[in-house]
Write a structure and sequence with these properties.
There is one protein chain. This protein is an alpha+beta fold and 115 residues long. The chain has one domain: 3-Layer(aba) Sandwich (Glutaredoxin), CATH 3.40.30. The protein has 4 helices and 4 strands. Strands 2-1-3-4 form a 4-stranded mixed sheet, sandwiched between helices. Helix 1 links the parallel strand 1 and strand 2. It starts with a strand and ends in a 12-residue tail after the last strand.
């Protein structure tokens, strides 16, 4: 089974999660989502694997969110569109394994996927 990490190399939490996976010799596919943004079907699948709404994976403190003029209470599809247009708003890291996913905040949470 492939393990994937939605990774931002500039993010310390993302680097820590990747390091945890590597230290346990878990083969991982690294997806640098800022270089290769996710598309709506993948976002929908990811939300299902996380068992959450888009609000749970949005970084509301980023300037792109403020500039959007949207509130946290905006419709789900509107927030998805915003995230797809501005991948920087994605919470990171997110690790997917065996059709389940975890947000690595703190990074150790991703290890729950391998218990």
């Amino acid at each position: 089974m492939t393990t994937r990490i939605f990774h931002n190399p500039r993010c310390s939490k993302s680097r820590q999660a990747l390091s945890l996976l590597n230290s346990r010799q878990i083969p991982v596919e690294v997806i640098e989502y800022l270089k290769n943004p996710i598309e709506r079907p993948e976002l929908e699948q990811l939300l299902g694997q996380l068992g959450c709404s888009v609000r749970d994976i949005l970084r509301f403190n980023e300037p792109e969110f403020g500039a959007s003029g949207l509130s946290k209470d905006a419709p789900e599809d509107t927030l998805k569109d915003l995230l797809l247009a501005h991948p920087k708003l994605l919470q990171r890291p997110i690790v997917v394994h065996n059709n389940a996913a975890r947000i690595g905040r703190p990074p150790e949470l991703v290890l729950e996927l391998f218990a």
